[in-house]
Each structure stands twice: as structure tokens, then as C-alpha cells.
Amino acid sequence: MYKISYTGDGATTEYVFAFPFFQVADVHVALDDVDTTTGYTIVPNDDFTGGRVIFATAPDVGVNIDIFRQISLSRVIDYQPTDKIDPEDLNDDFNFLLAAFQDLRAVDVDLASWANTHDNVVNFLNYTLDIVQDKLSGGGVLGLYNNLVSVLASALPVLINDYGSITEPASGDNNDDYGVL
């Protein structure tokens, strides 16, 4: 777990941290071991390798200030079945998961919470595996091809039976058969 601690002096409102994170919501602040979400602003570095926590009011003298990273497991990238998988996106996803696991390993987690996290990670990894295997096997393209063939297989016999040859004019009694398509 990435964490830096300070002790309030009653005057300082700005505290620097230098650890990597993915989004501002990953950075948490605790005052005297109580996680707080108000009374401060997080200003990240451009490359998300650190930043500053700026309090609206300086923490009192002796208050323990902890600034730490706690990544929540959630989907960042949504792979589409018919799109090419960008290796950079895939690497970012795995870096995100690795960072989340690093944070979990450093914290005491109750078993019920861990079971839920474990299930979510397993489901995410299985989903990613299915998408990658589908891309490698050509499943998206093959599925579209099979759908086209099935539509044409049911539509072409109707057209041929109704109209015979393409050069023959259609009779007036069956000119509305295009609704079958």
C-alpha cells in the first residue's frame, strides 16, 4: 500500500504525496485514522505519479494525517466483441489489476470482503479471456457471416419462387412479397 503520513501543525494546509495512481478517487485521506472525504482538494501531477492534498482549513496540532492509495476494482476499459484489442489498453488493464492487488495485500481484509473482491476479479478475468479468445478465433466476424448466410438462406428461396428469373416481370398478385424479407 502506498501511504505517506504527516502530523498537523495547525498552520500547514498543503501536503505532498509521491505515489502512482490511476484516478483522483484512488487517493484517500484519513485524519486520526478516520477516512474523510470532505474538507480538502486533491491536485494530481500531470502524469498521476503524485500530487498535493490541499485542506480548506489546516488540520489541528497533533492530528495524524494519512494520505494513501486505495484502488477500487472497477472496469476501466470496455472491450467490444468486434473491435481490435489495443495492446496498450490490455497492458493498462493488467497494470490496474496488479496495483489493486498490491493495495489489497497491504491491508487487513475481512474474509467476506475478500470473497466478494475475489469473485469480481475472477469474473473480470474470465470476461477478458473470453473476449481475447473471441478475437483470436475470429468469432465476431464468423458470427456476422453466419447471420448474413441465415438471412439470405431464408429470403432467397422466397424471391426465386415468386419471381423465377430476374429478367421475368413480376405479376401483380405477388408484388408485395418483399415484406417477407
TL;DR of this structure?
39% of the residues lie in helices and 18% in strands. By secondary structure, it is of the alpha+beta class.
Overview of the structural elements:
This protein has 181 residues and is an alpha+beta fold. It contains three helices and seven strands, in the order βββββββααα. A hairpin with a 2-residue loop joins β3 and β4. The longest helix is centred in the C-terminal third of the chain and has 27 residues. The protein starts with a strand and ends in an 18-residue tail after the last helix. The C terminus is likely disordered.
The shape is elongated
Helix fraction by DSSP (H/I, runs of at least 4): 25-40%
> Nearest-angstrom radius of gyration?
29 Å
- How would you classify the helix and strand content by structural class? alpha+beta
Strand composition percent? 15-25%
The major sheet is characterized as:
4 strands, antiparallel
Termini Cα gap = 60 Å
Secondary-structure element pattern, one letter each: EEEEEEEHHH
Count of extended strands: 7
Low-pLDDT windows of residues: 160-164, 177-181
- Spatial arrangement of strands, main beta sheet: 1-7-3-4
> Number of helical segments?
3
